[in-house]
Amino acid sequence: MVDYAVTPSPVVGLPIMDSQQLFPVRRVYCVGRNYAEHAKEMGFTGREDPFFFCKPADALVPVPVGQVGKMPYPSKTDNLHFEMELVVALGSGGRDIAVDRANDCIFGYALGLDMTRRDLQGECKKQGRPWEIGKGFDQSGPIGPIWSRAVTGTLSQGSISLDVNGTQRQSSDLSQMIWNIPETISYLSGLFELKAGDLIFTGTPEGVGAVVRGDKMVGRVAGLGEFEVEVV
Ligand code: MN
Q1: Which of 84, 121, 140, 194 is close enough to 162 for a disulfide, judged by CB 3.0 to 4.6 Å?
Q2: Cα(43) to centroid(ligand 1), Å
Q3: Ligand 1 mean position to 2 CA, how many Å?
Q4: How far, in Å, CA of 97 to CA of 90, rounded?
Q5: Cα 18 to ligand 1 centre (Å)
Q6: CATH classification of 12-231 is 3.30.930.10, yes or no?
Q7: What is the reported pTM?
Q8: Separation of CA 96 and ligand 1 centre (Å)
């Protein structure tokens, strides 16, 4: 038995639909600007190479089935933005995974929010600094339960949307990703060795905007139901 000097943090486990098992999270990768219309609203155009940032696994806020997730309004921001995303959960990994083998690595999918301190992220961009304080803060990643790919089939198209207080704010289709899911997995696996337990937030469509305390967000992806998160 290992004698740790301080108590180690627990593994973050996400519920799996129709299962008693949990999905153990290793790393959380996020793709930047992966829908053309969102790239444009952020001041960019065209198909640049995919780029990535990470959130800490313990920044996730698991939202159990049928419950409303609670995300505390973070410190040091006046501009907390929602980014509704499809999350891919890997059941296996590797290095330099070929595009035509990449879907085989997918254990399942989840609904996720890449919550962003947009004001701090903007400062980081301006000063050429890393994005962690804008993207990787505590409780910045509300996420629904994992849906097994064995149940959903392989997702490559279907609607993705987000309502805030009953008004639709984001609406697009998974087919609008600049880099589709297998291309993203393949590219990422050239940069990092991917492993079972890794999550990939696959980017957000256009329509991102700010929320304040008391706002209720409902995210949906076709085939994955919906999840609700309240900013508290
Ligand atoms: Mn994002």
Answers
A1: 84
A2: 15
A3: 38
A4: 13
A5: 28
A6: no
A7: 0.97
A8: 24
